[in-house]
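Researcher: Let's run the pair from yesterday's discussion. Sequence first, then tokens, for each.
Model: Starting with the first of the pair.
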Amino acid sequence: MKDIDPNKLADVVRDVANGVCWLDPEIAQLALNSFPKPENTRLLANNSNQEGRVPLTEREYEVLKHLVTGKSNTEIAKELIVSVHTAKAHVCSILQKMCVNDRVQAAVKAVKEGLV
């Protein structure tokens, strides 16, 4: 967004340079709202959006459980019988939906909120 705080922009640029997937939360919410709600979602607590909840698909929930155990994208891919690219895409989606910057934050948040 054009009105992003310069300090936040610098943080985002550093995170992206380090491999973190990032999408402005306002844009992510607009994108999520444009799709019909899938029937196979779990609603996770999240105080950062208007409704207080973020949809996580069943597959993303499976990937999150593996994240919490400290598995790499390669290990997750082998476990779920998908490509590493697909596993990485799921991790990226989870990070965006949970509004966290990395897999460690996602794991901590999942444990704190009793999601796994």
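Model: Moving on to the second of the pair.
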Amino acid sequence: MNTEKLKVFNLKSDSKNLDRACEILKSGGLVAMPTETVYGLAASAYDEKAVSNIFAAKGRPQDNPLIVHISNIEMLNDLVSEMPKKAIECAERFWPGPFTMVLKRSEKIPASVSAGLDTVAIRMPSNQVAAELIEKCGLPLAAPSANLSGSPSPTTAEHVIADLDGKIDAIVVSEPCEVGVESTVVTLATNPPRLLRPGGITLEQLKEVLPDIVIDKAVLAEPEKNKPVASPGMKYKHYAPKSKVIMLDGNLQDFCKYVNSKAENGVFALVFDGEEEGLMVPTVSFGKRDDAATQAAVLFDALRLLDKKGCSICYARVPTLDGMGLAVYNRLIRAAAFEVITL
């Protein structure tokens, strides 16, 4: 398959390329599009065959639900069977933006979109290219991350090309994604609401609207095997580079001592800015120690860089769990298949 590269950096001057992407989607094709979180692999949420092609292109398990992207509140009417008051409050507060709500789905949504569940995950991206594409199509777009299943999510068009070139119809080539990790996912189909996946909207922000929200056990710990997942990103191993990742929980001095004792060819350290000194192995940085937003923005690129540099085993520093640090920790612990060594 020839994958078209459609450059859209300006909505006016590049409108023909956006029209072409819309044409492909309306005809049942797959288009990778930028969002403010990560690049998504989009298809019409109403087209069951197109949705099945998303799973095939990514090599994604059929029991992993997709997120449906919309461009306006009116689209919700066809997607959900009920709209709780708290859902309206969340939409007013967090949309457009990196926030996903899980609600009871309508019959218009194919079961494959929701992995057979009676719910659907929905969000309204703030990225202007994504919003304009959805609006032009007049269709809600089902879109998981535009990468091979289980690998680090794509935050640039180059990442998408590396994973999916020749497997999908088109890639909208645009600016790198700002947030860098997937959206926050909250289910409002349960009482109390549950945080299923942390992201750009923090737990602290959620509590201002949902004071009774609880964190799902699978956010920080290994999920129960063979149990259906209500949200993307809840699988056992996810976001992982080809190299083996092991998290080391301890201070910098102990981290360096442990890693240096393992120094050999192929061993790398994933560290915060300025922590390279004192280590006898190559390093890759993933942001400032006290700035989780910068960590989130570069994490997936750092994980991909490990593979490019020939890493076989990576020992990673552990971020704090405050604010967006919870999202960074959630992604890292899955990349490490929950292997954490306490120093």
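Researcher: Give me one sentence on the second I can quote.
Model: The CA atoms of residues 207 and 213 lie 7 Å apart.
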